[in-house]
Amino acid sequence: MAESLSLDARLQAAATLALEAMRGRQHPRAADIGCDHGQLTAYLLEQVPDLTMLSSDVSAPSLQKARKLLAGRGLSGRAQLAVADGLAALADQEPVQAVIIAGMGAGTILKIVESGLACIGDAALIVQANVDLPLLRCGLSRMGFAIEREIYCEAAGRHYVTLQARRSEPVALDERSALLGAARGGVQGEGQRQYFLWQRGVRMRELQQLARHGSDRGRARMERCSRELMWISEVLGMNACTVSEMERIVGTIAPYELAEEWDNVGLLFGRSEAEVTRVLVALDLTQAVLDEAKALGAQLIVAHHPILFHARKHVTDRDREGRLMLDMARADVALIAAHTNLDSAPGGVNDVLMEAMGCTQVSGEGAVRVGWFETEMTLGRLCERARQRLHAQVRAYGAEDTPVHVLGCCSGAGGSELSRAVLMGADCFITGEIHHHEALDALDAGCTVIEAGHFETENPVCEVLRGALQKAVDALQYNMTVFCSEGHPFGRG
Question: What is the pTM of this model?
Answer without folding.
Answer: 0.79
